[in-house]
Amino acid sequence: MLLRNINPSRGLCNRTRLVLTRLGDCVLEGKVIPRSNLGKMVLILRLSLTPSNPRLPFNFQRKQFSLIVSYEMSINKSKGQSLANVGIFFLYVLFRESPITMI
Questions:
Q1: Residue (of 37, 40, 38) closest to 29 by Cα position
Q2: 30 burial level (CB within 10 Å; 0-12, 13-18, 19+)
Q3: Average pLDDT, consecutive stretches of 10 residues, N- to C-terminus, the chain (103 residues)
Q4: Residue 63's closest CA among 74, 75, 47, 76?
Q5: Is residue 27 a contact partner of residue 47, using CB atoms and an 8 Å limit?
Q6: Whole-number pLDDT of residue 49
Q7: Residue 12 near residue 2 (C-beta atoms within 8 A)
Q8: DSSP 60-88
Q9: Per-residue b or e along 50-71, where b marks 16 or more CB atoms closer than 10 Å to that residue's CB
Q10: CA distance 1 to 14
Q11: pTM here?
Q12: What is the pLDDT of residue 74?
């Protein structure tokens, strides 16, 4: 789900749901789920965010995708269920840690 209004004219607004089809270092490819733009393929770039806080004596910049992982369950299947654990299955390794950084 998108966290920011990236391109409202193309339907990429806050809380737009996507199914990611490809993952890259600086770009994600996804398919839009809502009915107005159903099936439209879009590219989501990594955004550079620079906070403007005059109290800080320095400037810093971070880069991130403005997405959040979301899931849903239909009303017919939920019926008062609560989930104790939720897992995500990846077909390939996404995160690699060197033995030095592992604690």
A1: 40
A2: buried
A3: 83 84 88 77 86 81 81 59 69 60 45
A4: 47
A5: no
A6: 81
A7: yes
A8: --EEE--B-------HHHHTT---S----
A9: eeeeeeeeeeeeeeebbbeeee
A10: 8
A11: 0.56
A12: 56
